[in-house]
Amino acid sequence: MARRMQGHAPSAISAPRRARFSVLIEEEDGWYIAECPALPGCVSQGKTRDEAIKNIREAIEASLETRVKNHIPFSASDDR
Q1: Is 77 exposed, middle or buried (0-12, 13-18, 19+ CB in 10 A)?
Q2: What's the pLDDT score for residue 19?
Q3: Which string of b and e fits 2-31 if b means at least 16 CB within 10 Å?
Q4: What is the pLDDT, as a whole number, of residue 11?
Q5: How far is CA 3 from the centre of its chain?
Q6: Topology at the third CATH level for domain 3-71
Q7: What is the pLDDT of residues 8-62, one digit of tens each?
Q8: Which residues pair with residue 46 across a beta bridge?
Q9: Is 22 helix (H, G, I), strand (E, B) or coil?
Q10: Cα 57–33–72 angle (5° rounding)?
């Protein structure tokens, strides 16, 4: 069963500003799988829910940094 939660990641464009992303978390085979639907391919996991949340935050930050570096547009409204 997937549960929806709000995750936070620093905005890669403006350090003091924070973006808000929805994150889906599922438990599967003893692992927690976290996905950020607004960022295609942004998925992580952890042995605990807290570890999965920590890891998806890092994945979101890396995804945003990559988007900025490669001039890939992103709008917070893309988070559905």
Answers
A1: exposed
A2: 81
A3: eeeeebebbbbeeeeeebebebbbeeeeee
A4: 40
A5: 14
A6: Double Stranded RNA Binding Domain (3.30.160)
A7: 444 444 444 678 899 999 999 999 999 999 999 999 999 999 999 999 999 999 9
A8: 32
A9: strand
A10: 45
